[in-house]
Design a protein that fits this description.
Blueprint (H helix, E strand, L loop, with lengths): L8 H5 L4 H14 L4 E4 L1 H7 L8 E4 L3 H7 L3 E5 L4 E8 L5 E8 L1 E3 L11 E3 L2 H6 L8 E3 L6 E3 L3 H7 L1 E2 L5 H7 L2 H12 L3 E2 L1 H10 L8 H13 L3 H11 L1 H5 L19 H8 L5 H10 L4 H12 L12 H8 L4 H10 L3 H13 L2 H4 L7 H6 L6 H15 L6 H17 L1
Parallel strand pairs: 2-5, 10-11
Antiparallel strand pairs: 1-2, 1-8, 3-4, 4-5, 6-7, 8-9
Helix pairs in contact: 7-9, 8-10, 8-11, 13-15, 13-17, 14-15, 16-21, 17-18
The chain binds adenosine-5'-triphosphate (ATP) and magnesium ion.
Length: about 425
Amino acid sequence: MTKANRPGPTAILFGMTEREFATEVVSKLQQAGFTALFAGGCVRDELLGLTPADYDIATSAKPDEMQTLFRRTHSFGASFGVVEVLGPRDANGEWLKVQVATFRSDGTYTDGRRPDSVVFSSPEEDAARRDFTINGLFRDPISGTVYDYVGGEKDLRNKVLRAIGNPEERFTEDKLRILRAVRMAARFELAVDPATLAAAKAMAPQIRAVSAERIAEELRKILTHRHRARGIKLLREFGLMAEVIPEAEQDTSVEFDSVTKVSFPLAFAALLKGVRPESAEAICRRLRMSNDETERIVWLTANRKAFHDAEHQAKSKLYPLLTHPGAFDLIELTALDDHFVDADWCSQVRRLTPLETLNPPPLLTGDDLKAMGMKPGPSFKKLLDDIRRLQLDGEVSDRAGAEEKIRELVRKSQQG
Ligand code: ATP
Ligand code: MG
């Protein structure tokens, strides 16, 4: 690093960026005589002009040597040669950290997901164990030199996703790579190399060897990315949709690319067009999604058509949906289903109507009914629901009116 671009003491103490910190770690390793390079995704992202989500460092230093060199480390994968080096806080007060891993080659795979053992090795071998050529690059952040042992730069330039080595073997070792292929190809708009594509298609049924949680995690990344339409297309093309969500295999889904950030439940519900709420719930459970995610997805699916023709619907039906925490997702889903006018109308109502109109305090409670001399029982809830409906629809507006209505309803039920 030249003197000019080395972060000064001020930068070190206040608001050092993750990249600056990662560069410091590389520099310290190099000064101690080790090879140390940025590795994998961060190199790819920077070559594409994107800001990496995180920086990974690969080095010739062994975990114990890293622990000697850095004051604060956290070793959670030392047997794999991975050490987390902890740094100062960034401008947002978050602790900076970077993963540093010893160059390694992976041993045999017997579980279809993780190597049984690893052997510390050279950068060439470390590149060869990675999944795709675009993910197999190293770069010295100080000199800027790119180390490419797998043809990754050319593939990145030509926008090609290609497995490193024999694609069938690579997908056999770790089946999650088949889903990663979809994610990478969609995210970076890559064409899939024919041999890689053929192997992925042939191996797609084996995705079942991967845990539901890991599959869901990849789906989450694919579907929340703005290139989700291409992701969904590739999931079908690879034959992965048929394995993972056969309910969405038919091309009825709303495929949408969007510049705005989209929640996973919204994207997932959009995918599940035509799927009944009970099936949606079964799919979420099968993929071991969280209760929160599952609930929201089922709610969106169940209310998918609730805003159609919204303007002519009873307020008592609309308002509870509009004050639900998923309201904006439901509005968005309504638009995705081509009901733009309804979505727009709902959005206006949600934004312009005061909350005390959309969700006013109830006029009567169970205690009030008791005070009126009624005995608690199943009819209680029904009466309260009836009053709530009349309140939201503007047919009763005060306590006296509500009490009067209750007496009327009770009289009617006794007559009938
Ligand atoms: P992201 O931006 O999503 O983090 P990434 O490429 O950095 O993308 P990571 O999961 O963070 O993905 O992995 C970092 C690097 O480790 C990858 O770039 C790749 O070189 C390697 N890698 C990750 N997962 C696998 C895998 N299943 N098989 C082989 N190599 C992998
Ligand atoms: Mg990463």
